[in-house]
RNA sequence: GGGCCGUUAACUCAGUCGGUAGAGUAUCUGCCUUUUAAGCAGAGAGUCGCUGGUUCGAGCCCAGCACGGCCCA
């Protein structure tokens, strides 16, 4: 781009609204070698229009400068000319709307009149019905909504004229007393009315709301203003994580934080994101799991630890996958994987109750009962009984491979029987596990960090939890034999060299930690996003992540 | 990565056979002191995602691209 664009950007950066004449002069000086300034026609005549030039220019540059913006800017100019600040910070909010509305909803008009109390509320105007000398509007804060009644007779001519310049989307402060309208709605009769924050952009239509999902995700701030369900979902998410912490805390677990940037990414089979530390000139990976660090803490002597936080996996996006997602992992020394099954049942039942009030939840039209006492099936059993596959096929590599390939999945060269069986499971079993099922005793080949079963070294003391046809948790008795662990890493390294770029790398420090001695332990990871989806009945992971990953918005002209 | 669908005013959506771009909401003007998807009368508002092509003529047909959605891998 040219110097023309640069000088325009400088002007934009230097200007802040309402700063006075020195700023204007400086802008003029900076822009003196730029082309003549464009005239913007607004439905108002005032020197202050010039203060809004940065906004006008940026809107114009993006072809967004429509009549609505011009009107809003004109109103802002008029408000400033009348001595009304657009972004003051002196309104003392006294009450939250929600509690006020709830507490007084049962009261009749007479009881409200006897209160003799003035409320100080602040919120965003989300709808407005204006008559000549009187108006009703609804304000919304974090706790709820309430209707406000404004009349010229009470407010006075001057204040009412100012009020007429308020728009839907503005944040206002109101004081007044409560009453009931003719139709019986609890309403605040405004004694005073003040602008707290001017909104320059129009909100989406009130009836249909914001339907375009792309805009809802990209401009989540707008979504949260106009989509109550969206707010509910994210409040539920917070409830879930708070209850999860409370449950683990009260069970004696200690919350810890381990590195998200790791030199050797481990603890899961996934491709990592790569990053770089400049000062140390060191390659780093964003973690794919906290597992290996949490187990180091068991070596260090902490017996019950957990971490809830973000993991990063360099894979595609879908309705079930976001590259950064939240997991809770916890490790419990001297426990076995079966202890974790019991704990998981109690945890999920409690979370369901906290969010929905019931241990039974409805997910995408299916009733799912999360009350403890879930089905428990071994991996092989599940393929046979749920998947309906002949045991002879399950045990025979070639037959199993043939069936997988017939079903449209690929079997890569060098993949062992356990991996092929896992594919059979994914195809024939997983989608059928609607009610909660613990599937245990996974093949050792696909469980490089799990402890082998004492009676059968081919399988591990591991389970995965499935609900609504999806994996919700992965848990196992931990492998704490450093020699076995080293060999499993070496197997993984060979698979990596053979082309499996999701296979583990050798982590010498982790093996060294095990060589000091890690107590026998059981550990589990729970995918929080999927759990929130389940408990809020959402089909897409993007509905439960505030800012899901999207490609950048198209920049016209770039 | 593949298939299907979508992208038209700030928002929600129509747009017939290829023939001057439509509605509701929002905005603006006027009336209006109990509305609640307030009402009545009027007005303004568009790079039809982008780039090409076909055609006398493209929102519409064709190709490519971008972004998104759903399904599959």
Describe the structure.
The chain is built from 20 helices and 18 strands. It has 558 residues and is of the alpha+beta class. The chain folds into three domains: 3-81, no CATH class; 97-197, OB fold (Dihydrolipoamide Acetyltransferase, E2P), CATH 2.40.50; 229-387 and 429-543, BirA Bifunctional Protein, domain 2 (2-Layer Sandwich), CATH 3.30.930. It is elongated, with a radius of gyration of 31 Å. The structure holds one RNA strand of 73 nucleotides.
List the helices and strands and how they pair.
Elements: H1 3-14, H2 21-30, H3 53-61, H4 67-81, H5 97-104, H6 109-115, E1 119-130, E2 134-141, E3 144-151, H7 152-155, H8 157-163, E4 171-180, E5 186-197, H9 213-218, H10 220-226, H11 228-250, E6 254-255, E7 261-262, E8 274-277, E9 282-286, H12 291-300, E10 304-312, E11 324-333, H13 337-356, E12 360-363, E13 366-369, E14 375-378, H14 379-385, H15 391-395, H16 397-406, H17 417-428, E15 437-440, E16 462-467, E17 470-477, H18 482-497, H19 508-516, E18 521-527, H20 528-536
Helix pairs in contact: 1-2, 1-3, 11-13, 11-20, 12-19, 16-17, 18-19
The protein binds one RNA strand of 73 nucleotides through helix 4, strand 1, strand 2, strand 3 and helix 9.
